[in-house]
Amino acid sequence: MSSEILPAFSETSNVERKQDLNEDQEENQKPGLGEGFEPISKRQMKKLMKQKQWEEQRELRKQKRKEKRKRKQLERQCQLESNSEGSDRKRIRRDVVYSPLRLIIDCSFDSLMVLKDIKKLHKQIQRCYAENRRALHPVQDIHIKPEHYSEFIQKEELIYLTSDSPNVLKELDESKAYVIGGLVDHNHHKGLTYKQASEHGIDHAQLPLGNFVKMNSRKVLAINHVFEIILEYLETRDWQEAFFTILPQRKGAVPTDKACESSSHEKKFARVEGGLNSDSSEEENRNELDSPHKEEKQDKETSTESTVNSILH
After folding, report:
1. What separation in angstroms does the CA of 117 have from each of 107, 111, 309?
2. Phi then psi dihedrals of residue 290, to 5 deg
3. How open is the CA angle 223-225-226, to the nearest 5 degrees?
4. Which of 48, 167, 180, 265 could join 205 via S-S bond, C-beta 3.0 to 4.6 A?
5. Which residues contact 190 (CB under 8 A, 6 or more apart)?
6. Using an 8 Å Cβ cutoff, are 174 and 215 in contact?
7. 188 within 8 A of 109, measured Cβ to Cβ
8. 219 and 209 in contact (C-beta within 8 Å)?
9. pTM exceeds 0.85
10. CA-to-CA distance for 196 and 206, rounded, in angstroms?
């Protein structure tokens, strides 16, 4: 019995010894505090920093998502409102009455303009197109044609609008086609459109601007201003209202009756000033005349005082 038990006990003791040795080796292989740590690379450091920032900005991301959702809701709401306004605008457009009057922009002056002025001309034409679409009494649709306007419209139907014309319009004839000179030249080519209309044998006239408006600047208007004034007149049938609705404030436009009143007031004021100046000049003359008499009196008084003093002494 004892011989059989001893080998088994020796085997178990050997196994325990091996386990103890393995545990000791593992403990020896573990790095101590401050020893055996490998240095972290820059890439790993960046990853750790990014992860840290990501966790710190979690609340901020939530806030941004909320704001984005609100912004999209507002955009959808605005879009719905604009669609409703568009439908209202379409309903209003049904009440639009087109005028048979035709407006032509003469774009044959490109060779006389620099590139900057040609770009301004294009913008003014775009403005004309946009205003015509919004008008309650728009003119005929705009067509771009390379031919001269006299080739597809009879000369008897044409009237060239130019500020140099001696003829002044009283009202618009809607059976006519009115030509606007497409020239942005800052008044370098004076009388050119008038000369061209005369050479082509086309009737010409100017808007009745001087009859209703007194301006500080020259009477030459931009192309889109002429276009818009005509559209406004077709709606109101009132030149003065059309001029003062469209003309920009920098032109210093004033109604002619008010301008006359202000000029007469200035004349009266000038007369009053002249009267005051004449009165003051008369007083000055009187003072000049009285001054020698005063001097004589002063001399007499001084002489008497000197004689009295000499007698006393």
Report:
1. 12, 11, 93
2. -75, -25
3. 70
4. 167
5. 164
6. no
7. no
8. yes
9. no
10. 15
Q: Which residues are catalytic?
A: 185
| CA separation for the pair 197, 161 (Å, rounded) | 9
Distance CA(210)–CA(233), nearest Å, equals 16
Contact call for residues 12 and 18 (beta carbons, < 8 A): no
Q: How far apart are CA 178 and CA 172, in angstroms?
A: 9
pLDDT tens for the 313 residues of the chain, in order: 444 444 444 455 555 565 655 555 555 554 444 445 567 888 888 888 888 888 888 888 888 888 888 888 888 888 887 776 555 555 455 578 889 999 999 999 989 999 999 999 999 999 999 999 999 889 977 778 888 888 889 999 999 999 999 999 999 999 999 999 999 977 778 889 999 899 989 999 999 998 998 877 666 789 999 999 999 999 999 999 999 999 887 767 788 776 555 555 455 544 544 554 545 455 445 554 454 444 555 554 554 444 434 433 4
CA-CA-CA-CA dihedral for 294, 299, 301, 302, to nearest 10:
140
Q: How far is CA 77 from CA 70, 82, 242, 269, 284, in A?
A: 11, 9, 37, 61, 80
Report how far residue 119's alpha carbon sits from residue 110's, in angstroms, rounded to the nearest whole number. 10
Please give the C-alpha separations between residue 239 and each of 16, 169, 224, 260, in angstroms, as whole numbers.
118, 10, 16, 19
